[in-house]
Prior knowledge:
The protein has helices at residues 4-14, 31-43, 61-71, 104-121, 140-145, 155-167, 187-194, 210-219, 228-232, 236-245, and strands at 19-24, 48-51, 76-78, 92-98, 124-132, 172-176, 201-204, 223-226. By secondary structure, the chain is of the alpha/beta class. It has one domain: FMN-linked oxidoreductases (TIM Barrel, Alpha-Beta Barrel). It has an 8-stranded parallel β-barrel with strand order 1-2-3-4-5-6-7-8, surrounded by 7 helices. The model has no long low-confidence stretch (mean pLDDT 95). The protein binds SN-glycerol-1-phosphate.
Amino acid sequence: MNNAIYNKLTARKNERKKSFVVLIDPDKTSTNHASILLERCEESLVDFIFVGGSLVVTDHLDELVQHIKKTSNIPVILFPGSPSQITPFADALLYLSLISGRNPELLIGQHVISAPTVKKSGLEVISTGYMVIDGGAPTTVSYISNANPIPSDKNEIAICTAMAGEMLGMKLIYMDAGSGAKTPITETMIEAVSTHITIPLIIGGGITDPEKAYRNCQAGADIIVVGNAIEKDSSLIKEISAAIHSL
Ligand code: 1GP
């Protein structure tokens, strides 16, 4: 299998470079709006685009990803909320296992069902330990996953979960407070987890300003994901990207 995207992610971590990901939710983004976002992403040197959402109800994923690939050179990685959100037109797929939850369907069940489709897609598959952290309000991901998030002040649980994910062979850890979280993940939790794993650490959920993104990176995040805030104000792409890349 081609590992180009993962190699790029780890190379950046090894060079102590922080990465910025803009999350595009197909439900909230028309191809026209995507074009505007992509122009800003290109000029702001965004490192990767994630495409996905906990609940995608529109059916233009293939079209949207093809449009992104045609319009921009930024690598596109799928961040699927369900096996229906897989398209062969992206560069890679986060193969997410919800290791913070105890819902067997999201730990392994859905993977078994979708394995042949994923294999056939030819996508680069990146095994990812996905950890939902309490973001202060029920988010779509916590409702859909039917699994309790890790309490925001239980750093030990987060550390042990991430360590277990790494030792199980996962290649990334993604800690997510959920889209639009009221309370993003604390720097103390990010620092605690990052010092116990060697694989890249992705942080997302409720990040709305450059200062928070910067502090998260200082605390040990390797990759910052922002979705909601950028949907509301695309000028933030430039500011957040500059903050992340200034480290
Ligand atoms: C959600 O981590 C992502 O899964 C991004 O969250 O939309 O709140 O930026 P926001």
